[in-house]
Every structure is written in C-alpha cells, then in structure tokens.
Write a structure and sequence with these properties.
binds adenosine-5'-triphosphate, 8 helices, EC 2.7.1.71, five-stranded parallel β-sheet, magnesium, binds (3R,4S,5R)-3,4,5-trihydroxycyclohex-1-ENE-1-carboxylic acid, P-loop_NTPase, Shikimate_kinase_CS, Rossmann fold, metal-binding, binds magnesium ion
C-alpha cells in the first residue's frame, strides 16, 4: 500500500489546496500530515509549537509520515518542513513525489500574514525567503515530478498533477 502521490513544497505552494483537488479528480481520498498531526496531538499546530516546541512537532511529524506512507492509498500532502528530516527523505524513495514549486512573490501573497503557520508569525516574507532557499534542494531531491505553480489556478495545477500520474502509470 502506498499513496498515489505525495505532495511536497514550501508553505504557500498549495499542497493542501491542489492535493485536495487532485484527489477529487482521481476519486481517491486526500490526507494532509499537518491535519493528521493535529488530530493526534488534539490541538492545532500553533499550539503544538507553543506548548511542546518545534522538536516535539517534528517527532510527531516523522512518526505520522512513516505510518501514513505505508498505509494510505490516496493523495498525501506533507507539511512544508517534513523533508528536513533525512529519514523522511529516505522513506520517500520509491514513492511518486510531486514538488509544487513557487517563487517567493506568489508564496508571500498566498500565506499573507502567516496566520496558523507558527514559523511565519514574525516577518513572514524574510522567513519564507530563507526557508525556501534552504529547502529548495531538498524538495528537488525527493521529487519524481515538479510542477511550477506561479500565476496558475489550483484546478489547472491539479489537472496537470493527475495527467502526469496517468502518463507515469
Ligand atoms: N495556485 C494558487 N493560486 C492562488 N492561490 C493559491 C494557489 N494555491 C493555493 N493558493 C492559496 O494559498 C493559500 C495557501 O495554500 P495551501 O494552504 O494549499 O498551501 P500549503 O502548501 O498547504 O501550505 P502549508 O505548508 O502552510 O500547509 C490558500 O489560501 C490557498 O487558497
Ligand atoms: O514549513 C514548515 O516548517 C511548516 C509548514 C506547515 O505545513 C506545518 O507543518 C508547520 O507549520 C511547519
Ligand atoms: Mg497545507
């Protein structure tokens, strides 16, 4: 058992929005590890960061991803920082992994003031710039496919994702 596609990318890439739309087009389930973590912790992500700290969030994230990769058959969106962990990058090998890329200007517009995204609560633009530069090679290293999302509508991106899965299969 494996996800039909795992979606990665920085905050604001549209992993949740596009992943959900692609799952609907494919007629499969959608899951988002950020949401699964919230269910498991019994509280929203900002509260996990605030109460327990980022290392506790990352530990929960690693565990949820390891379990889900082996048990979920729909479209799976990962949190923006999931690929920071080497073990997670290794676990993604052999999976169909779609990197939704986005340039800083569109990402900034999409995340706005960073509400609900604890890492972006102070100076979202500068933080996002730094995070995206640091992580771009990591997203690229796990990706089997990359889709540029700038100046494109989520439905169009979801249709491209579905088309590339069909061509790959
Ligand atoms: N292609 C797009 N064009 C315009 N707006 C978009 C696009 N994709 C997503 N958005 C909007 O940008 C915001 C962030 O999208 P979304 O939550 O799907 O990103 P994400 O990659 O899941 O981020 P995170 O890593 O924080 O979970 C949402 O308000 C969404 O409606
Ligand atoms: O970019 C990140 O490190 C994060 C992105 C979100 O998806 C959440 O997983 C969390 O807010 C951390
Ligand atoms: Mg998301």
């Amino acid at each position: 058992m494996a996800p039909v596609a795992v979606v990665v990318g920085p905050p604001g890439a549209g992993k949740t929005t596009v992943g959900l739309a692609a799952a609907a087009l494919l007629g499969v389930e959608f899951a988002d590890t950020d949401h699964l973590i919230e269910v498991r912790a019994g509280k929203p992500i900002p509260e996990i960061f605030f109460d327990d700290g980022e290392p506790a969030f990352r530990a929960l994230e690693r565990a949820v991803i390891a379990e889900t990769l082996g048990s979920f058959e729909g479209v799976l969106a990962l949190g923006g920082g999931a690929i920071l962990h080497e073990g997670t990058r290794e676990a993604l090998r052999g999976h169909t992994v779609v990197f939704l890329s986005v340039e800083l200007s569109d990402a900034v517009k999409r995340v706005g003031l960073g509400v609900g995204r604890p890492l972006l609560s102070i100076n979202p633009r500068a933080t996002l710039k730094y995070l995206m530069e640091e992580r771009r090679p990591l997203y690229a290293s796990v990706a089997t496919h990359t889709i540029a999302t700038d100046a494109r509508e989520p439905d169009e991106i979801a249709a491209e994702l579905v088309a590339l899965l069909k061509n790959a299969g």
